[in-house]
Known about the structure:
283 residues; mainly alpha; transport; transmembrane helix; membrane; transmembrane; MetI-like
Amino acid sequence: MTVTRAHESPGRLTWQAFRRNPLGPSAVAVLLLMGVVALCAPLIADYPSGYGEQVLAPPGGGHWFGTDDLGRDVFAQVVWGTRVSIVVGLAASALAIVAGVVVGVAAAYFRRADAALGVVVDLSLSLPVLPLMILVAALAGPSVPTLVVVIAAFSWPEVARVVRSQGLAVVPMPYVSASHALGGSHLWIIRRHVLPGVAPVVAVSVVLTTSRAVLAEAGLSFLGLGDPDSWSWGTILHNAQRSGSLATAWWTTLFPSLAILLLVVSATLVAVAYNDASDPRTR
């Protein structure tokens, strides 16, 4: 058994350890379920628009999550809000990951650029993120693309710092030095050796950055800086606060809040389980 495990690939060992942890697969199942809800929203509930006859009706058979101050079904709002919230989270995360990986790998590989890039990253991390996000979103105007760009612009420094730390451990490796000695180009070495070396932390960063982006989108939308023409979990909370039903109709805020909590907790559990599974000391 020991010999067999010695010849198994690191990826296979990581997957086996991840699968043995019940929290990891369960959290992945929750995230996949949310993805299915986002994709199949038109098949699950009608788009919430217009007015309804039952105003602020509590959860019941006709309306599982109750209705809001205009009689619109809260369950339909949460279902359709899943689509926008996840799209914004994934898109903002993708932009932040690309920018963070480029900066982090460049800082780790090109030592002369490390000091300058480090100053940029440290300066970005020291900025008051939430007030600046609010300011930029307010000046640019409420829309989904604006939210994606604004959230990504303030999320990449954390990715860059993590990737740089991992890259500093990969660049001095003997196989990287051997590639230099054999005349390998910088681009080839980065693509062939450095990027695979930082891939585990990038995978964790994707999940965590997406959950943070969903939180940021919910916060900005709650403040009225989201797209008024589309539903998101933050928009539901904003409408409840604006209409005054925030304190009188608990169901208008409970269910979108639970959706946000469920996504963030699931993403965090996936990241923790994967990090433990990829570390040989904790397998």
